[in-house]
Structure formats: C-alpha cells, structure tokens
Amino acid sequence: MTSLRTRACERFGIRFPIVQTGMGWVSGPRLTAATSAAGGLGILAAVTMTFEQLEDAVREVKARTSSPFGVNFRADQPDLARRIDLAVRRGVPLVSFAGAPTRDAIERIHDGGLLCMPTVGARRHAEKMAEWGVDAVMAQGAEGGGHTGVVPTSLLLPQVVEAVGGAIPVLGAGGFHDGRGLVAALAWGADGVAMGTRFLLTQESTVPEGVKRLYLQAAVTDTVVTRSIDGAPQRVIRTPVVDRLESASPVTRLPRALRSALQFRRLTGTPLRELVREGLSMRRSQDLTWSQLVMAANAPMLTKASLVDGRPEVGILPAGQGVGVMAELPTVEALLSRIMAEATEALARLCPGPG
Ligand SMILES: Cc1cc2nc3c(=O)[nH]c(=O)nc-3n(C[C@H](O)[C@H](O)[C@H](O)COP(=O)(O)O)c2cc1C
C-alpha cells in the first residue's frame, strides 16, 4: 500500500489519498468526522451554515476525532474573514473553496498557518490559482455533482496536472467512486481523489433515507446539467421539479424564488442588508441578471428541501453521474477500506510482482 501514499497524504496529514468534499446541507460534522477518523480528509460544508452553526460543527468534529479535517467556504460570503479567523483559532488545518478565493482570502488563510484548496473546472483556473499560491487544487470534471464545468474528468485532470507543473498536489473530482478510479487518477498524474456523491450515499450521511433511495435508483443517464436553478450550470438528478424549473416563465419563477430566498436568509441568520450587499457583489462578480440573482439566492433552499427536509417533490437533488453506479450505503470506514483494497488490487494487476 506504500505506493498509494501520495503528496496529498503528506500535505494534509492523512492516511489515504481520499477527500470527502464539502457538500452544502450534506457534509455535516458526523460525515466529516467519520471520513477523517477513517483515514481520509473530511470537509465540513459551511456555505449553508450560519456562523454559530459553523462554530458548533467545528466543535463537534473535534469532539469526534483528532484527525485533520477542512471547512468549505465561498469567496463572496460577507463574513468570510471572520470565518477564516474562526478556522485559524480552532486549528482547522484546511480551507476549501467552491470556486476561486480572492488573493486576500488566500493571504489570510496562510497568515493563520492553514492550507487553501480551491475547486477548479478549467486549466486556466488552475494556472491562476497556482500562481496565487494555493496549496492544492481539486479539479472537478463535468461528470461531478452540484455546480460543474464542461470538461470531463478524463481530459481536465491531466490538463490541470500539467498546468500546475508538479508545484502542488492535485485531487481529481467528478465521477470517482472506487479503487480503479483512484488508480486512474494517479495515472493521470493526480495525488488522490475527492468525492461528493459517493459520500452522500453512506451510512453516516444525514440525508433522509427515502431521499438516499431515490439517489440509489438513479441510472448513469438520469442526471442533467441545468442553469435554471441559479444561473450557473449545476448537475442534478432529473426530476419533475427540474423539468418545471426549466420550463417556467420568469413571471411565475421569480416571485416564488424571491420568497424562498428570503426564507433561506432568515434560516441562516443573514441580516437583510448583508443579503443585499452579497447580492450586489454576486451580480457584479458573476455578471448575473436580476432574475438570475434571485434564483441564485433561492438555490440553497431548493437543496435543503430535499436533502434536509426530505421533500424531493419540491426540492432538487444535486448528484454526479457516478450516482448511476452506486448501489448500496456503506459505512465511511467500509467505503475507504474497499477503495484502498480495490486500488491495491488494480495496481497488482497492472504491475505484477516477480513470480
Ligand atoms: C449535494 C451536493 C452538494 C454540493 N455542495 C457543494 C458546496 O457547498 N461547495 C462545494 O465546493 N462543492 C459542492 N458540491 C460539489 C462537490 O463538493 C464535489 O466537487 C462533487 O460532488 C464531485 O463530484 P462527484 O459528485 O462525482 O464525486 C456539491 C455536490 C453535491 C452532490
């Protein structure tokens, strides 16, 4: 198994080169701690948490395991600096980002002695992030769940590895679910894999059982990439809700989205003035129209409806295409052991020893 110890293991202080990504409403303290305790790197999804929930979640992970873990933020969160300071104070070793962090955020993370790992979906993003001094990148190919790009993992990963020129570890993401995939990622030059959907479908994931069953029933061809949720391409399981969103006219879509967005802000405790400030900065930075902006603010509510409240008839089900090859709900520990055993077996098949 020594050949499966990679730079990612050294840099993150973990046993296996496997990361459980920060998935909004899914990667809570239970899943994150289980992954880290089992030898991978768990990442808390903090974009959908209030500051106080984040504090509690960090405390809970630390109570469950002494192994390293990370937190996932978004660069345009209004209280990002305060959240980074919390991670520093509580000794959370790594901050991951959905998309690109600012130079200021990277500096603040480094000043606090933490590692910074953004997700990239294109070669040029990886080049920019490496130049800005991040410590690792997660390259997510098109087959990945949630917000995703258009380049498939098989092409993106070797491109990103080339782009960063060996300077920092690269984790492959999008479609990974087993040990053969881990070996493929290493063959493309990556230092490990990061998985979302596979971890959503484990015993420790708090997604309601009925909703997990819907995921397990989905075929490889049952996901779709849609812009109708928040304006950015997002891979979800195709359901009647998604069909309705795609065919809805702005006249019916907007008032509903606005109501739901305000409810989300109440739930996450964001004052209205911050909602407006964040909205204006998102509109500028992502070049959104007003209607896209309202939908963007509404998107987290649609995910929460399914993944927390268990109401897929009104919510969305973000998922990677790999969902179609997942058939059971292992414990995180069993999943990691299986992936490592499969990877070892695949390597032995590729490079048989003497005799
Ligand atoms: C339910 C769900 C929620 C997600 N939420 C986030 C998020 O809040 N932040 C983030 O950086 N990525 C998020 N993602 C993307 C994942 O972190 C990860 O990059 C992706 O799932 C990898 O592809 P895979 O699902 O094929 O493993 C989400 C993905 C899913 C499936």
Descriptive notes:
The protein has 355 residues and is an alpha/beta fold. It folds into 2 domains: 2-207 and 328-349, Aldolase class I (TIM Barrel, Alpha-Beta Barrel), CATH 3.20.20; 219-307, no CATH class. Helix content is 48%, strand content 13%. The chain contains 15 helices and 11 strands. The chain has an 8-stranded parallel beta barrel, surrounded by 7 helices. It has a 3-stranded antiparallel sheet with strand order 7-11-10, with no helix packed on it. Helix 8 (179-187) crosses helix 15 and helix 12 (250-267) packs across helix 14 (290-307). The radius of gyration is 19 Å and the shape is globular. The mean pLDDT is 92. The site of flavin mononucleotide has 28 residues, from helix 9.
Characterize this entry briefly:
The protein contains 15 helices and 11 strands.
Brief descriptors of the model:
TIM Barrel; binds flavin mononucleotide; 355 residues; alpha/beta; globular; single chain
Layout of secondary structure:
Blueprint: H1 7-12, E1 18-20, H2 29-37, E2 41-45, H3 51-64, E3 69-73, H4 80-89, E4 94-97, H5 103-111, E5 115-120, H6 123-131, E6 137-140, E7 146-147, H7 153-164, E8 170-173, H8 179-187, E9 192-195, H9 197-200, H10 209-217, E10 223-226, E11 234-237, H11 240-247, H12 250-267, H13 272-286, H14 290-307, H15 332-350
Helix pairs in contact: 2-3, 6-7, 8-15, 12-14
The site of flavin mononucleotide (FMN) has 28 residues, from helix 9.
| Main pleated sheet | 8 strands, parallel, barrel
The CATH architecture designation of the largest domain is Alpha-Beta Barrel
Query: Class of the largest domain in CATH?
Result: Alpha Beta
Helix segment count?
15
Uncertain regions spanning at least 5 consecutive residues: none
Which molecules other than protein and nucleic acid are bound? flavin mononucleotide
Number of domains: 2
Shape: globular
Structural class: alpha/beta
Under CATH, the homologous superfamily of the largest domain reads: Aldolase class I
What oligomeric assembly is this protein in? Answer: single chain
N-to-C span:
19 Å
Helix content: 40-55%
- What percentage of the residues does DSSP assign to strands (E)? 5-15%
